[in-house]
Amino acid sequence: TNAAFKEALSRIESHEDCRNLPMISFLILPMQRVTRLPLLMDTICQKTPKDSAKYENCKQALKEVSKVHSQVILGKMDLSHLEGLQCDFLALQPFPLVSSSRWLVKRGELTAYVEDTGLFSKRTSKQQVYFFLFNDVLIITKKK
């Protein structure tokens, strides 16, 4: 409701350093980084020779980063219960599939068993779904 704040925010968002990104993208960035850290540490552990002295340090770092990640995710879940509108807003944002920090880890076709529960019946049907596992996101699709 503060006009001066709105004007300052608009001026900051339009600055070339911000690349015309809205404030919400900068607020989400730390969360995205925290979710990527366990993947990065796991990759480092996989690339470190197991007989190396650094391997145990990598495993310990992965354990600690995973703990922080879990705490952040649990904190986000608690917050999402309190502020349902925030989660709805985030879910409606366009998803940038192409990113310089994203790569495909694995893809494949799987059979999903979907349970349909009716008033007097319960039936299970099979659907073919395609999974695309990237380093930071899992996308599940259906063939049209």
Automatic annotation (TrEMBL):
Q: Which GO terms describe its molecular function?
A: guanyl-nucleotide exchange factor activity
Segments forming domain DH:
1-75
* SUPFAM superfamilies for this protein: DBL homology domain (DH-domain), PH domain-like
State what protein this is by name: ARHGQ factor
Encoding gene (name): Arhgef26
